User: Fold this.
Amino acid sequence: MTEKVPNAEILFLYEAKDTNPNGDPDAENRPRMDYVGRRLLVSDVRLKRYVRDYLLLRGEDVWVRTREDGSRTDADGRLQELMNLYAKETGREAGAKKDLDPDFLKWYLRRLRDVRLFGAVLPIKGEGEAKGGTGQFVGPVQFDWGYSLHPVEVYTATLSSHFAGRTEGGKGEHGTFGKDHRVPYALIAFWGRVSRARAEKVGLSPEDLEVLEKGLLEGLLQGATTRSKVGQTPRLYLRVDWVEGFRPLGDPRDGLALRPAEGKAPEAIRSVADYTLDARALARGLARYREAVARVRLWVHPDLRVEGLSLEGFPLEEVRF
Assistant:
């Protein structure tokens, strides 16, 4: 009997140190912020990009990507590329874009793990003057936006470049200046949810979830190697598998609190050594539904001090990383 994907909750924490985890193009690429709560924000799209790039490094294909030569394409062009590839591999046509062959869609799902995880929207062309539409695979794994577990401040530096930015009548050239926006430190937390019912519709497997775990932990380290992203380190991963259905655990981040080292303000946190993660409320929430928990998978960075995450009596599996 094939093992089924469980309904599950995911908690993923990573730190961002002197970096810009997710620039906002509508705000001069400043780090995204909730200025009322003074929390750093990171979109789920940014997190999924790390996983997709990790899959590419594994030699897999993904739905959302650039071409091999680095050029960009839109969803319609990407679908056409895959239809051409399907015809080349199988000798069969994928069908019209408004009526794709079911065998092509099965091939599409088998080929693209990121679609089995996160879903996809397929563009469907209309015929003649008819309006087109979309087809959709709803992803069984969805993440909420991530946010920092403590107040964060943004700092800005002006950088100069030796490359010329303009000339004056051909008589001289001048270097250029740019702004560099970063946060000194943030412990960012994501909440994700896995749906068994949606997993069955797209063929998501337990192995896919194991690859997702690696994509989060290893993918962050491999992907955060650009100038603006370097400085990010995974600190904690926890997955709670439910026996049946879901239980109203709620957002597991609500059960976490950062306690800064003695005498230090939350805004002054600059490293993992400057605080303790208090997880007692999360442990109490899990204990409330102990009988409904099939399994807990956990990885904690050895430098992260965690208090109160008591999982005694739970079926606990260590995530090797």
